Sequence to fold (237 residues):
Amino acid sequence: MDFTLHELFADIGIEGQKKLCEKTVTLVGIGGIGSSVAEILARAGVNLRIIDKGRILEKDIMKQCLYRLEDISKFKAKQSKKILEEINSQLKVKTFHEDLHAGNIFLIESDLVVDLTNNMATSDLVNKYCLEKKIPLIFSNYAGSKGHVLIVDRSQYSGVGPCVNCIREKLEFKDKSKLGVYVPVTYLLASLVASAVIKNLLNYGNVAKLLNVDVMKTDIRHESVEKDKKCSVCSVL
Ligand SMILES: [Zn+2]
Fold:
């Protein structure tokens, strides 16, 4: 893989690109945001662990860039590995067709975890494990034309930033299944998530922040978020 464009980009350079190729990121969920994040990271040389038990449905084709009509009913994780290795043959991709639970949460262990599960019970497990193991975590979800990206990086571990549980009311969408999806939101969020991953792996931007987007309004805002001192997860660690 020729990484000349990143190597010429001053904020990455030859050393930065070498570092990216040595890193491994876990994607929990490879659907709407996850498939685009995986593609961007594969092209950037970042190795991947992909955890997703799901199979490809016809409605997924509308917003999940790694899949085609002929892939319907195949396992998402297996199919994404095939496509990602075709894009970058030097890439190391490990896949797990499993739902995460307390007994296998160790599978997420890597340099950084991206939580795209769309399931708060699983997100709670991921959040707690990342806090305990001090693994940077990026969380994203969406509904309609709106979405969030929460970056929980190393600032959290010095007690400064919030965890997912501290601000969970800001992250959840009520009646999500009735809101549909405006497809461009998944691509915008994927781009923001992938950039946050790369910057974190290169130690840029170590400030916990929440991004709120509304694509229909062409609106992206940073929101300052703080640790909840009474949080049942991070305040007791
Ligand atoms: Zn917390």
